[in-house]
Fold:
Amino acid sequence: MSVHVQQRGYYLIILTLVIALIFNYLPLSEQASRLRPDVLLIVLIYWAMALPNRVGMLTGLFAGLLMDGATSNLMGQHAFVYVISLWVISIYHKRLRVISRWNQTLSVILLLLFGKLVDAFVLGVTHAVIPDLKFWASPFITVFIWPWLFPFLRNFRQSFRIS
Structure:
């Protein structure tokens, strides 16, 4: 594979991550923002499953720090969740690629719930706030995107021959 094709692949992966980041930055009302899906995390999960040699923990760290800076959260909070999630994906990516979409969805929701658990811990430590049920709704809303996002990104990857 030529260097030009490899670079184009990197640019297209970065493009999808930037679009996901924009979705995460869209301004919403206070009530709606608590239900906001973490599109960036599931796009990172897809790329880490599909191309673990290109998207890994360092990509997750950088994307998480961008999210932390934009959302004014504790610096490193999203980065920690993204790195741990991509670490789990790096271990199990071969298994996750061959299981059914519904089993993949269950795996993704576990990673998303882990992220919310970290968020709840940080909120409890820094603000002494106990999250309500709306706080826990975001992973379930996010996981509804997965069955449509996965084939979309797979077709995107295959049509542009990203490998």
User: Anything to note?
Assistant: Helices lie at 3-25, 30-33, 39-50, 57-71, 77-98, 101-127, 137-159. The mean pLDDT is 91. Residues 3-159 form one domain.
